[in-house]
Specification:
Largest sheet: 4 strands, mixed
Shape: elongated
Structural class: mainly beta
Distance between the termini: 32 Å
Strand order of the largest sheet: 1-2-3-4
Radius of gyration: 27 Å
Length: 285
Amino acid sequence: MTKARDLANVRYTKGSTANRPTGNQGDLYYDTTEDNLYQKNATTWAVAGVANAIIAEMLVVAGGGGGGTWTGGGGGGGFNGSYAAPTTGGSGGGGTTDQPGGGAQTGAAASPTGQGNAGGSYTRDSNYAAGGGGGAGAGGANNSGTTAGSGGVGTSAYSAWGLATSSGQNVGGTYFFAGGGGGGSNGAGSQSTGGSGGGGAGRVSFGQTPDAGTANTGGGGGGGPTGSGATSANGGNGGSGIVIMRYSDASPDLTTIAAGLTYTKYTTGGYKYYKFTAGTGSVTI
């Protein structure tokens, strides 16, 4: 069949690319320059009969770092004979207590640069209060006397995603991801807080278990209390991560989703959201 015969019974306007009209959604235009029939969609002209490209956005939040054993915000170091430097990550761990030689220790930097923020620093005092772990939105706080540093706040840049999918940590209507874990201290210190975005609180005595980061937020674990010889002083686990995909709700559903993936679908605000919270596998649009 020729193009002329195909178009014989179709109502359309005709002209060159230069003269293509603004048009209304659903209009047809035969472009003599391109030698093709175009249809006006919501925003632009597209070749008729060809599916529009689906532009999908992805939010990927990695799992949070565990709190340091016997002190440090998320990823912080140890105490006495178990000393280890605070570790780097999307955000850095808080400065630890009783590092070799005593004195101050700077919190670890974020690595790679730009993905998060550094942990808070530690200045030695009799209460061994550690720095807080860094968050995606701000660095961890330094210790202050007997009080360990709080975890850095997470990011609220994806609050709309959190609202649409009931994800992240809701703080007064704003949703945060990847908060830092609070630092640990000994019994004479004050308990630190985790950063908004699922960061776990640090602890101050051996009878307490540091808070884990909140699941599916990427929040850091809280630091363990300081001291020696206590088995309950381990830091809290980091919170598991999350992956969220969204694209226009005018586009079709995902064609295939691997059986090993745990997900929930939401349709709101002009988007289709797919929230993946566990498993491995691939999807097809």
